[in-house]
Structure formats: C-alpha cells, structure tokens
Amino acid sequence: MARIDNHQSDFEIKRPNLIERQDYKPAWPQEEFMVPLLRRYIEEILFTYCQPVTSNSRVLDVGCGRQPFRINLEKLGYIYSSLDAQQNPESSVNIVCEIDKILPPQVIDLGCFDFIFCTEVLEHVADWDMAFSNFTKLLASGGKLLITCPHFYQLHEEPYDFWRPTPYALKYFGNRFRLKILHQVQAGDAWDVLGTLIANCHPTPLSKSFSNCFLNIIVLMFGHILFKIIASRRLQANVKLNSPLYMSNIILFEKQ
C-alpha cells in the first residue's frame, strides 16, 4: 500500500466523504438512466474490444472507488491493480494517489499496463494534461484506455466536479498524446436526458396562495407520472425523441 502526500496547491479543496457504489445499479432516481446505460456500454466494450492478449495481461482501474467492475475485469482474465485518490472502506485500493499529479515511484515500479480502465472519473480530475500524460506513461505499447465521462448530469462529488467534456475534447487530448481512437460513442438519448432532468426537478409554490399550491401539486404529480412512464421504457419502444442531447461520452483509445 502506498499513500502519496502531494504538495498543496493554491486551489486547495477538501474531498467529500463519499459512500461509493459496490455495484453498478441505480441507487436513487437521478441515476435511473445514467447508471444502467453506462453498465451496458462498458460491458459490451469490455467483451468486444478489451479481451486480454495474454494470460499475464494487466489492468489498472483508475479512480476505482469500491471496484464495481473488478469482477468483470478479472473474469476476462486480467491481473487487477487499482488506483484512487482515496482509500475505500475495504482498504482494497493498491495505490492511493491522484492521476493528475506526478506519479510516485510506487506506481512507476508497477510497470506498464495492457489496459487502463477509467470510468466516471475524469470529470473530477482538474488537470487533464497531467492525467493524459500519466495514462501514456502507464500504458504499454498497444495498450488500451477506456474512458467514460458524463455530458448531461447533475453536479456530484462536489466540490470535485470540474468538467462535462464534449466528444471533441476527448478526441483532442487523445490526439495530443498520440492515442488512437478505437471506439467512440455519444451514449444515451433525449428520453434519458428528459428522465434525468425530471428526477432533478423539485417544484415549490412561489406563495402560500391556494392557486399556487394547487398548481404546484399538479406539476409535482405530472412530473412523477412522466418520470415513471419514461423509466418504464415503454415510450422509448414506440416513439423516438429526436434531439442533439445525450448523456455520456464513451471512448476507447489505443497507445501507438
């Protein structure tokens, strides 16, 4: 176990105390659309593009939290290692350090990895230049890097929530660090966006007048019913909601 104490910067903020997920299932309505969406895409990409090349192939789970995808990665045949900015309750994080800081010797000594798994992490990472530089240092030649980042999603893990990148931001940093795109998806549709928006809206009457309170009840009931209908996925099976809005960026790179 290695704990790294980095020098404090001028922008010093305290990390929140989080209860991180042990599995990839929605824990509350705001996650109803994002979490299953990501799980489906991640599992498909792992199976299609990220099978281990050899019996000694190694994966580094960056920003691993409580390691909800560890079983998936080990079932594929990877030798699993983990890195996070904080230790988890199970004390199973191998290296405690930040991916956007200078890599400590304990990380360098691990050698290069065949696969880096980094999902729903980079929106919480301030310095993308350093993070991508570290990814390339840690990847073996021909190694793969899977990144997911939300595009439409509420603030979370505040105040460590910095970015909602576009597909072009990810492509830009990949090109800058000579990472070839193998697969890229703008995941989720306008129904997912609308459901997530409704889950984050909580109406309040502007005054205690009867009309305002009555209208507030109508809006509350309408939002609740609409959320339940969208969450059932029945509308999606019959109606396509055309929109440029989407939920998440998913991209798989390969080091050249």
Using brief descriptors, characterize the structure shown.
8-stranded mixed sheet; 7 helices; elongated; 256 residues; disordered N terminus; alpha/beta; Rossmann fold; 2 domains
Reconstruct the topology from this structure.
Elements: E1 2-3, H1 34-49, E2 58-62, H2 70-76, E3 79-84, E4 95-96, H3 105-108, E5 113-119, H4 128-138, E6 139-150, H5 167-176, E7 179-187, H6 190-199, H7 210-231, E8 248-255
Parallel strand pairs: 1-4, 2-3, 2-5, 3-4, 5-6
Antiparallel strand pairs: 6-8, 7-8
Keywords: Methyltransferase, Transferase
InterPro entries: SAM-dependent_MTases_sf (IPR029063)
GO molecular function: methyltransferase activity
Question: Could you please describe the fold and organization of this structure?
Answer:
It comes from Nostoc edaphicum CCNP1411. Keywords: Methyltransferase, Transferase. This is Class I SAM-dependent methyltransferase. The structure is a single chain. An eight-stranded mixed β-sheet has the order 1-4-3-2-5-6-8-7, sandwiched between helices. The chain contains seven helices and eight strands; from the N terminus they run βαβαββαβαβαβααβ. Residues 1-10 have low confidence and may be disordered. The protein has helices at residues 34-49, 70-76, 105-108, 128-138, 167-176, 190-199, 210-231; strands spanning 2-3, 58-62, 79-84, 95-96, 113-119, 139-150, 179-187, 248-255. 31% of the residues lie in helices and 20% in strands. Helix 4 links the parallel strand 5 (113-119) and strand 6 (139-150). It is α/β, with parallel strands linked by helices and 256 residues long. The chain folds into two domains: 26-189 and 242-255, Rossmann fold; 191-231. Helix 6 (190-199) packs across helix 7 (210-231). The longest helix is centred in the last third of the chain and has 22 residues, at 210-231.
